[in-house]
Design goal:
CATH superfamily of the largest domain: NADH-ubiquinone oxidoreductase 51kDa subunit, iron-sulphur binding domain
Largest sheet: 2 strands, antiparallel
CATH class of the largest domain: Mainly Alpha
Number of domains: 2
Shape: elongated
Structural class: mainly alpha
Strand order of the largest sheet: 1-4
CATH architecture of the largest domain: Up-down Bundle
Helix content: 40-55%
Number of helices: 8
Length: 195
């Protein structure tokens, strides 16, 4: 019989801190907290953690709203106040730590400042820098890159481009491009709701 190692809040926090985006940090933290150290004995922590995870996931996926943000703030404040153990209070404080900055608001408005949330970035090929070598197309396991390799004595090539609906934003294409023709851009920031 194998022994299951118990996750500790300190270990989860350490792993979460490795992420660049504060919203990603919070989502990772709450997800790991739910799968391990949360005991589920007190209502504010048990229900609050599950609801906070849902709200954070929506924000990371690009579907978050102002209502999600205010609900997340209310949930974490109630967790910090009403949780019976230190683990629940620490979890709430970890999420609240970044809510006073504008990082969560920027996510609601369609921008991840650290460019870590995949819903808010796109990989694009700069045609002027592309030498049409095809290394990016060979590296893409998802068939997200269209285009033709340049061959001597031929003309009328289909330039390389990334199909955004197929792109999983893994960065494999970027790693093999010899001319750094592939860049990460932010698609147009969505307009605030109600303007």
């Amino acid at each position: 019989m194998t022994e299951v190692k118990e996750l500790k809040v300190e270990d989860i926090k350490k792993s979460a801190e490795e992420k660049g985006c504060p919203v990603q940090k919070a989502l990772y933290y709450i997800t790991e907290f739910l799968s391990g150290p949360m005991c589920g004995r007190c209502f504010p922590c048990a229900m609050g953690s599950y609801e906070a995870r849902i709200r954070l996931q929506k924000i990371v996926d690009g579907y978050g709203t102002e209502a999600d943000l205010s609900a997340l703030k209310r949930i974490t404040e109630q967790m910090a106040e009403g949780s019976l153990c230190k683990k629940g209070k620490d979890t709430a404080k970890f999420i609240l730590e970044w809510m006073s900055t504008n990082v969560y608001d920027e996510h609601i408005n369609g921008r991840c400042p650290s460019r870590e949330c995949k819903a808010f970035i796109e990989y694009r090929i700069i045609p002027e820098k592309c030498i049409m070598c095809g290394l990016c197309k060979d590296a893409c396991k998802y068939g997200a890159i269209l285009g033709e390799k340049k061959e001597p004595y031929k003309s009328g090539y289909l330039p390389f481009e990334i199909r955004q609906k197929r792109c999983v934003k893994c960065g494999d294409c970027m790693a093999v491009c010899p001319t750094e023709a592939i860049i990460i851009v932010e698609p147009r920031v969505k307009e605030p709701v109600g303007v």
